Amino acid sequence: MAIEATYRGLNLEVADQDADNLAYFRHCASGVFHLQRCEACRLLRYPPGPGCPWCGSGASHWEPVPMRGTVHTYTEVHHAIQPGFRPASPYAVLIVDLDEQRGRPTTHEALRVVGNLVTPDGELAPPERVREVGIGSRVRMVFTSVGPEIALPNWTLDARPDDSPPWRP
């Protein structure tokens, strides 16, 4: 059955035919991040889909994945075109290298998951938190619930293992 929800005034819908994304967002709604693992090459994949991007196999299963990573890159949105995001501007959109499967299948690859920078309770981060994030920031995933069967994976700042600041242009 299709999933429908609204987030900050935007209508979200995952159609019945999109079995991979239905499963993905239902896992997110459970509060545990899951990705598909290929049965043939054993690599995880994101985004979800019917075939492995590494070897082409269609056989996979869902498994939980640790929800921590490092900011690969980000952008700050200062002029939100969607009315529901305007009160939260500036907000940050992050692309995060998950700790899991980093450097596989090649040394320069990682599972990269996109999401907004949020507070630990899933609300868009205020400007002072946006100014703290940069390339190399450690983050952990939190979910923003937008309906009974759908939650959006987002990121909140996590403790840094050392005192070095993240890189900001």
Overall description:
The protein is 9% helix and 37% strand. It is built from two helices and ten strands; from the N terminus they run ββαββββββαββ. The longest helix is centred in the N-terminal third of the chain and has 11 residues, at 19-29. It is globular, with a radius of gyration of 16 Å. The model has no long low-confidence stretch (mean pLDDT 94).
How would you describe this structure in keywords?
OB fold (Dihydrolipoamide Acetyltransferase, E2P), three-stranded antiparallel β-sheet, 169 residues, mainly beta, five-stranded antiparallel β-sheet
Question: Could you give a quick summary of the protein structure above?
Answer:
9% of the residues lie in helices and 37% in strands. It contains 2 helices and 10 strands, in the order ββαββββββαββ.
> How much helix is in the residues?
under 10%
Q: Strands of the biggest beta sheet: in what spatial order? A: 8-7-6-9-10
E-strand count: 10
pLDDT < 50 runs, ≥5 residues: none
CATH architecture term:
Beta Barrel
